[in-house]
Amino acid sequence: MKRIKLTVSYDGTNYSGWQIQPNAPTIEAELDKAIASLTGENVHVIGASRTDAGVHGKGNVAVFDTSSTIPADRFSYALNRYLPEDIQIQKSEEVDKDFHPRHCDTKKTYEYKISNTEFYLPQERRYSWHVQAKLDLEKMQEAANYLIGEHDFKSFASVHTQAETTIRTIYSIELIAKDKKEGKDYQGEIIIRVKGNGFLYNMVRIIAGTLVGVGKGRFESQYVKEMLEALDRTKAGETAPPQGLTLVEIQY
């Protein structure tokens, strides 16, 4: 037996998230089905990040064990023939048999995309959150800086989170504005790029929703520090919609 690591990209629009659920399409189920079709083995992949319904992935990671003689680096080519167009393996490689994608030190990078325009672009509706109001990016970055470092992020996690601890470390949060229209209140495309050692259920979406609240003037930037200290989900901002979120990369 050998353990194969897959780097998986997907458009999450048509799926109920990564993790297998009864009577619902998921990324994990499609991968299991493709591997069974290719190898004849009834295996179950282990994913690094169990993204929510509607969330996208460019660099999620999954592993599985197989006795197939297919070379490790050829699994990506072979499996892609069995996968739907909205899921594709970007890389396959052999790893140590004890490698577990969720039990390692990692740096995960997520990006949340906001379409800050007067009218939304139909082709962006599946991949961004349309926010029409003017956003103050300087205040949003000021607020984001309070979240950098090791903190208890209980205020920024869904009340349904089942994590043993809500302490996480954020290494960086960058706000990137693209296609700014001169003379307009609108910023065009805004990316919130967050890198951390791990994230709680809905954490990045709550951070995005909170920063947009700051950008709209609903919260003062320094109030984010009080949100953290409150350890109370009701003190932070709204949960941004899932379609703007993409898991970009996992570094081991």
Task: Provide structural commentary.
With 252 residues, the chain is of the alpha+beta class. The chain has 2 domains: 2-95, Alpha-Beta Plaits (2-Layer Sandwich), CATH 3.30.70.580; 108-251, 2-Layer Sandwich (Alpha-Beta Plaits), CATH 3.30.70.660. It contains 5 helices and 10 strands. The chain has helices at 27-39, 75-80, 137-145, 203-216, 223-230, and strands at residues 2-10, 46-47, 56-66, 87-95, 107-116, 129-130, 149-152, 167-178, 188-196, 245-251. Strands 1, 2, 3, 4, 5, 6, 7, 8, 9 and 10 form a 10-stranded mixed beta sheet that branches. Helix 3 crosses helix 4 (203-216). It starts with a strand and ends with a strand.
Biggest β-sheet, characterized? 10 strands, mixed
Rg calculated over all Cα atoms = 19 Å
- CATH topology value of the largest domain: Alpha-Beta Plaits
User: On the 0-100 scale, what is the average pLDDT?
Assistant: 94
CATH superfamily of the largest domain: Pseudouridine synthase I, catalytic domain, C-terminal subdomain
Structural domains: how many: 2
- In what range is the share of β-strand residues? 25-35%
Subunit structure: Homodimer.
Binding site for substrate: 110
Protein name: tRNA pseudouridine synthase A
Enzyme class: isomerase
